[in-house]
Amino acid sequence: MSMFREITPEQFIVSPFACIGSDWMLITARKGDLVNTMTASWGGLGVMWGKNVASIVVRPSRFTKEFIDAADTFSLSFLPDKYRKQLNYLGAVSGRDEPKIERSGLAVIDVDGTPCFAEASQVLICRKIFAQVYDPDCFLDPAIAACYPQKDYHTFYYGEVIKILKKEE
Ligand SMILES: Cc1cc2nc3c(=O)[nH]c(=O)nc-3n(C[C@H](O)[C@H](O)[C@H](O)COP(=O)(O)O)c2cc1C
């Protein structure tokens, strides 16, 4: 933990389009003694109900969804580009089928009971405050339906950002 320092939301200066959409993130949560993670490139950062929030969307098939649903918190770990291979792996294989965190070689660390990754350059610790399955009746752009040929609609979550960690240089 000493390799990270806590920063304020105002000191967290990133493009959400780059750090989520291009660089990707790991969504990680704990269920009992187990931890699971998955790569994500959809989501957002903003302000809602007067709180700083991160939003994520998770399809029902993801093993990580069971962990997010079981936990009060989850983390978003942003890793440097040299870990792209591991991000691809963690986004292609399910923790149901393989001990993928162990095989990735990445190290889980614990921040106030929430798991995240030692290799991250920045980490958001989030408290789950909202979850809702997307209702296809609400898709105003018909093109959105093409994302769901199997009708496996994402669950949308808001997490209140309760801690932001930055790797010490
Ligand atoms: C670049 C990338 C982005 C992804 N983004 C998401 C996402 O935002 N939501 C989602 O449900 N799955 C997303 N996935 C798919 C999951 O990461 C993938 O299905 C993973 O194997 C799930 O692992 P799990 O079953 O252990 O949870 C993405 C995969 C990749 C490679």
What does this structure look like?
By secondary structure, the chain is an alpha+beta fold. The chain contains 4 helices and 10 strands. It has helices at 16-22, 63-70, 84-90, 100-104; strands spanning 4-7, 25-31, 34-40, 43-48, 51-58, 73-78, 108-111, 114-117, 122-133, 155-167. Strand 7 (108-111) and strand 8 (114-117) form a beta hairpin. The protein is globular. The model has no long low-confidence stretch (mean pLDDT 97). The structure holds flavin mononucleotide (FMN). Flavin mononucleotide binds next to strand 3, strand 5 and helix 2.
Mean pLDDT: 97
The description of the largest β-sheet is:
8 strands, antiparallel
Give the structural class: alpha+beta
Pattern of helices and strands: EHEEEEHEHHEEEE
Helical region count?
4
Shape: globular
Low-confidence stretches: none
Number of strands: 10
Ligands bound, unique: flavin mononucleotide
Beta-strand portion reads 35-45%
Radius of gyration: 15 Å
Termini distance?
14 Å
Helix content: 10-25%
Summarize the entry for a quick read:
With 169 residues, the protein is α+β, with helices and mostly antiparallel strands. The chain has four helices and ten strands. The strands form two sheets. Strands 1, 2, 3, 4, 5, 6, 9 and 10 form an eight-stranded antiparallel sheet that branches. Strands 7-8 form a two-stranded antiparallel sheet.
